Amino acid sequence: MFLLQANTQNGIPTVIFFGTIGMLTLAVGLIVFIIFHQRKVIRYQGTLQRMEQDQQRMLLNASIRLQEEERQRLAADLHDDAGPLLATARLYLNENLVNMDKASQLQSIYNAKQIIDDTIQLIRNISHSLMPPTLKNFGLESAVNDLFQKISGSGSLNASCRFHDYKERLKTEDELILFRVLQELVNNILKHSNASFIHVTQNINGDRFFLRLHHDGRGLTQADFEKLNKSPVGLGLKNIQSRLKLLSGNIYFEKDVSQTYYKVTIELSKEEVL
Amino acid sequence: MKEFLNIFSTYSSILPIAACLFSLSKINRRLYIIILYCFISFLTDLSFKYMHLKGSPHLQFYILSSFTIIEYCVFSFFIFRTLLNTFLKYLVVFISILYLIFSIIYFVQNRSYVFDSLPASIESLILIVFCLLYFFEQISIPTTSFLYSNSTFWVIIGILFYLSGTLFLFLYAASLPTNEAFHHWYINNVFNILNKIFFAIALILNKIEVPDKIPVNRQSYI
Fold it and tell me: What ipTM score was computed for the predicted complex, to two decimals?
């Protein structure tokens, strides 16, 4: 009651004066806080969005570059290998062949046949590199086994695989993506890691599909992978990520607790691939 | 000066109505109730002045008490329509029912015919809390547009400023002698003008606002 009776210089009771000022200050403070907070959140979201867009752009560039490289390789194979072979075969089968003696004719035809056989083999190899027939006909497990047998056959390192829960094949296009990812990983190991063994295991845990690759060479950790992924180099790794993105999958690079080998885990949703 | 504020406060209700006339075809349906409020507020102010001149305190009391209830209904309905979270909506409805029961009982039983200080103060407090709920909800929802580009924000600001500014006046109005209370009524006038200016901004902004339809995925933020 005293506060109500006490007046300010304007004649307003002190309690009303200070109460109103206090409430206004709180209201203004609240509004200013909310506006600044929201601006901060929006700015943060914008930065995140830009980073994501950059990442997407890099992945897209990597995928386009890969496609171009693949096309160039195909063009080179066809132009440099198949082209000269067919041109040589054509030389053997020229118009003068009819004027030659029988023995020369037979020799020319035999040579041309040999060259055409080589060309057929070459084209088959190119075709197999595009879509391995083992993968198409027998599935991922057989294709990986096939690949690893070839690698082990070279004698430089021991490659093996074990598929624990692969009674049911994945969709063909998903198998191809996984195979390409494994090929890229194995290729990197062969090129950079100096490993003596590669071992791949597959299993299913709940609704997750796992492929794990172990090797004892120099490898990558998750931090290295993310760093390389954000830099303009590391085209292969970007391709791995963009391929796995198609399957909504994840990849983790880690060094084993024993510090003796590196582990790469590919994790997919079972629903997504089966 | 106080007389000027009094007149300007009465006619300030025309500001949002005029702003609405500029953008009538594109007006957000949620804002119709604010226009209705401005219209009622204008009529109330005029009739209050008329009763004051005629010297009928009973009628003045009835006008002010009815206006408090109408004002509460309008603002709480607007906030109810604005909130997205179902739990908060139910909370608004529940508190509103309790408040309306209390105000109607107060209105019927009060025979002192002085300013309805208690219902007006409780109204202010409840609506301030509702405004805080609105802000809480807004900062919880990830959005890419700025809050102040939305007309609803300006309506809520108008409500918040008006109720915060007049809370202590309403709270102590009944404790002050009638003449003194009228003497300090210019505080209400100042905040009423501010309130109507904010409402007018909301209605002008509404012209360039995006749709009132809320994406479904925004509904499950809590």
Answer: 0.80
